[in-house]
Amino acid sequence: TANKELLANHGAELYEAAEAAGVDLLFEAAVAGAIPIMRPLRESLAGEPITRVMGIVNGTTNFILSRMADDGASYADALAEAQSLGYAERDPTADVEGFDAGAKAAIIATITFGARVVAGDVYHEGISGITVADIDFAADLRHCIKLLAVVERTVASDGGFQIGVRVHPTLVPLDHPLASVRGSFNAVFVEGGAAGDLMFYGRGAGGRPTASAVLGDLIDAAGNLRQGHSASISALERARIAPIDDVTSAFYLNVEVDDRPGVLAQVATVFGEHGVSIRSMEQEGLGGEARLVFITHAARERDLRSTLQDLRSLDAVRSVGSVLRVIGD
Fold first, then answer.
1. Is there a catalytic annotation at residue 104?
2. Rounded to an integer, what distance in angstroms lies between the CA atom of residue 183 and that of residue 61?
């Protein structure tokens, strides 16, 4: 099947039914189209201690962000072009708000870590709030913006194993392999222990790429029938999901303030009070205002949220714009 929503919400029941019947349940086409990622995660990398998987798994949003970065198109114009080319639906919500990528993230997490993750477990943010100014600031910082699905193995406060699974716009360094993925193409970046880093790249949607993946599954199923065995997935325990407030990331913040003495010190004090360390800061004058662009060191989501709340309460802060996560640190 290529039905990602079905697998992301009811995969466990399907896996159990397939195992009970002694038949295959194959779904290479459900994630990233023609890119062979499900089979490598299930088979080739089954013994690999994978720590994190990051993917550009929605071609619509990658096309939109690429047009904004390459040609200076507004979000609205890039979306309209994607719709005219058939990359986006008339109602693009599932794509641009991260629901489509979230379903794929749930499937990737389930197969990668061998624990049941459903679509409702996935924290998601979309790209509809991304502006050309964000794209330009990212470029000045030698980053680009991508909508990433991220699944990772983390350790809880009690020492137990938990899975972080989320979808959000992310600043990606230009020297990272995912930064080179343009247009409607997809890519999945796997961080392993013994194998190191691996990237799978190709067309993530469309009739022919999807048909290629489905045909590969059919050939696998036919071979298994001849040999008298199946590639079913054993019943999986429910995953322990890492709360988003406990997830650690570096952050990009765009803050507009009054351009007068002492304001920067006030802003920096708020960061310090919440234990959020500033890695870099750029300032741009805007008449009587100034735009401050910060990159932080790694911080917990809850600490960053508290920082934002207190920043917004400062009289000198006119607005807090985009807040995006950053790969690295």
1. yes
2. 9
Reply yes or no on whether the pLDDT at 235 is more than 70.
Answer: no
For residue 162, give the CATH number of its domain: 3.30.360.10
Provide the residue range defining the domain that includes 255. Answer: 244-326
Question: Which listed residue (67, 104, 203, 291) is catalytic?
Answer: 104
pTM of the model: 0.92
Once rounded to an integer, what is the mean pLDDT over residues 292-313? Answer: 96
Per-residue pLDDT band for 225 (boundaries 50, 70, 90) equals confident
Contacts (Cβ under 8 Å, ≥6 apart) of 199: 177, 178, 187, 188, 189, 190
Structural domains counted in the chain: 2
Pick the more confident residue, 329 or 40. Answer: 40
- What local confidence, expressed as pLDDT, does residue 232 receive? 66
Q: Please enumerate in sequence order all residues whose Cβ is within 8 A of that of 189, keeping only pairs 6 or more positions apart, or say none.
A: 53, 54, 55, 177, 178, 197, 198, 199
Please identify, among 186, 203, 220, the residue that sits at the C-terminal boundary of a domain.
203
pLDDT one-digit tens code per residue, 15-48: 888 888 888 899 999 999 889 999 999 989 988 8
CA 272 to mean position of chain CA atoms: 28
Query: Looking at the predicted structure, is the pLDDT value of residue 329 above 70?
Result: no
Judge if 85 and 164 occupy the same domain: yes
